[in-house]
């Protein structure tokens, strides 16, 4: 007899504080990635280890049914870095069942015969016939069901949330991701259009830059978002996601009203001074502060164009879909945009399709709407802003 006791507690700050356990098991860590201030709660849960050097923590989890976020994303990346030798931590033992990168790149990780590679208990505690039957059912049910199955039974990380009412362009978004930054666009493009959308205190302000490659004629895209501190407080369900996007450089949290539009104007000024800016497309409603910031940055009034929203934006939505499917719209493979594309919901309206904030619910899509605004202008085939001269020697 060791007088050891086992205590099961709920994942709540009021129940985990003050615990001084020797061993702590945290199950289904992916669920904590969706909780507000989950990192603080876990810190409370394992804080007692400071007085128990013999103590240990075990994290167990499947993959998330959505793109990894919050504390789950942090722990997963840390475990991968220790496994790959990027971080030296002799006190941390990662045991991760994932397919190798070359299989993921080729798509072989999605084959049924490769499920066994990441299921060491297949044929033992996991029934092989059941798993294969569920695999075939998920395949038949569509992309959303199949991704959900693979995340749970093959530990496949979801990069883009695909649902049945998703935007058609979402099916081609991931494969068009490249390493494209704003500097790349300024270096490679012969003309640039900018889209801006959103900007309420509890909303995102999204900006998207689209440039046309002077040699290949590809459309190059890069986006950024801003959120006021009020939005983080009011949207606690998305707080961990916001923190992840800030960490990867896709989002900026501002404290003072107006700092967001000033930073947008600074980006636009860089493009304008590079002699590449054609026009700026914005939602005509609620643009006062954006216009003021652009004017203070020295951007001419005639460059700003109001882009009609609703069903009138359907042409830009379809153009974006076709450019993605054709392989000529290349974007920066940003977590921000993958999140927004996954949030977008299509609402049919007569012969037109709508992607609106109302149809998309609580999911943020402002940077995606900014992309559509930029595409509306780029689809007009603007002339290069910077004249190029050829020199001939006789």
Automatic annotation (TrEMBL):
**What does the record give under GO molecular function?**
endonuclease activity
Residues of the Terminase large subunit-like endonuclease domain: 117-376
Q: What is this protein called?
A: Terminase large subunit
In its UniProt entry, the species of origin is given as Shigella sonnei
């Amino acid at each position: 007899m060791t007088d050891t006791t086992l205590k099961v507690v709920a994942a709540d700050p009021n129940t985990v504080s003050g615990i001084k356990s020797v061993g702590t098991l945290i199950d289904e860590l992916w669920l904590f990635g969706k909780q507000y201030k989950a990192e603080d709660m876990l810190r409370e849960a394992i804080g007692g280890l400071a007085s128990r050097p013999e103590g240990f923590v075990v994290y167990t989890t499947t993959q998330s049914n959505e793109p990894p976020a919050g504390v789950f994303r942090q722990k997963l990346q840390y475990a991968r870095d220790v496994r790959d030798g990027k971080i030296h931590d002799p006190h941390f033992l990662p045991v991760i069942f994932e397919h190798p990168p070359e299989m993921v790149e080729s798509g072989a990780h999605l084959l049924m015969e490769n499920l066994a590679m990441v299921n060491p208990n297949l044929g033992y505690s996991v029934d092989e016939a059941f798993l294969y039957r569920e695999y075939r059912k998920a395949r038949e049910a569509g992309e959303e069901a199949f991704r959900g199955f693979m995340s749970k039974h093959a530990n496949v990380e979801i990069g883009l949330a695909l649902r049945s009412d998703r935007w058609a362009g979402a099916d081609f978004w991931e494969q068009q991701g490249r390493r494209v930054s704003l500097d790349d666009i300024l270096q490679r493009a012969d003309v640039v259009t900018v889209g801006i959308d959103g900007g309420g205190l509890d909303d995102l302000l999204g900006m998207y830059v689209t440039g046309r490659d002077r040699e290949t004629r590809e459309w190059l895209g890069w986006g950024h978002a801003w959120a006021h501190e009020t939005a983080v407080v009011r949207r606690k369900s998305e707080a961990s996601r916001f923190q992840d996007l800030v960490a990867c450089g896709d989002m900026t949290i501002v404290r003072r009203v107006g700092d967001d539009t000033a930073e947008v104007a600074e980006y636009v000024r860089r493009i304008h001074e590079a002699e590449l800016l054609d026009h700026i497309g914005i939602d005509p409603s609620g643009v006062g502060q954006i216009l003021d910031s652009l004017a203070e940055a020295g951007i001419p009034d005639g460059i700003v164009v109001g882009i009609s929203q609703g069903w009138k934006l359907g042409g830009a939505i379809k153009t974006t879909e076709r450019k993605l499917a054709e392989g000529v719209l290349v974007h920066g493979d940003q977590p921000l945009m993958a999140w927004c594309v996954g949030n977008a919901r299509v609402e049919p309206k007569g012969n037109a399709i709508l992607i609106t904030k109302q149809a998309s619910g609580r999911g943020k899509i402002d940077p995606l709407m900014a992309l559509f605004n930029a595409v509306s202008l780029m689809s007009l085939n603007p002339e290069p802003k910077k004249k190029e001269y050829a020199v001939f020697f006789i």
